[in-house]
Amino acid sequence: MNNKPKAIVFFDLDGTLLTSDIQVADSTVAALDKLRANHIIPIMATGRSAFEVKHIMHRTGIDSIVGMNGQSVIYQGKSIFTNNIDPQIIDRMLEFSRSHTGIPLAFYNDHLMRISQSGEAAKKFYDYLKQAIPQVDDKIHHHKPIQMLLLLCENGEQIYQDFFPELTFIRNTPYCVDIFNTGGSKAFGIDKLLQNANLYGIPTYAFGDGLNDIEMFEMVDHPIAMANAVAPLKELAQLITADNNHDGIAKGLQQLGLI
What we know:
Distance between the termini: 24 Å
Low-confidence stretches: none
Number of helices: 10
CATH architecture of the largest domain: 3-Layer(aba) Sandwich
CATH topology of the largest domain: Rossmann fold
Radius of gyration: 18 Å
């Protein structure tokens, strides 16, 4: 008996699955229920970590996530892949920040978030996400694996790109830049998921709105952009649905005939 799903749909979170006030619309929850009833798997594909979106996973019933821009993959509640950053590289970056820029860092894995120092930059970013500011611990990477770092800044990341070619830097909000191992992306994580969960050959869809969704759009069979998406993403889209505040997920799934 073939228990493989009919299709897989990957959803970005901020600006896509979530409304502008960081909520999941009732129409989206209902659409996801219909999707599962049709034997189609919804999976989050986000710059965020599983730890910080537990409440969203509970609200939506989604138990699989390509997190931290593909640096961690959880499928049906089980971790199947992580891509850790070398602690020595993190030490170098901390020292570079202290001596050159003063920009604080945040440290992420599937179970925790920490910051290198408190201050206005951290407050702006976590207020923007409507999250509590994490604990300060600039040694966390010495005893816990870290899959993603953040530069908590509104500008100034270019100098880091010049000094740390082994890392990828993507601005994900006005107040932070995501950092992970070069070669990593949502597409990279999706490939690891399809490989490790034996899901190759199944039709894939993706909804997104941001620059960190470009590789994902180039990889899946059917890319769908939100109306609020950046222009480069819309150019890659098969379909442009309504925005994230006006039932874009439900409307897009309906137009695709998935629900």
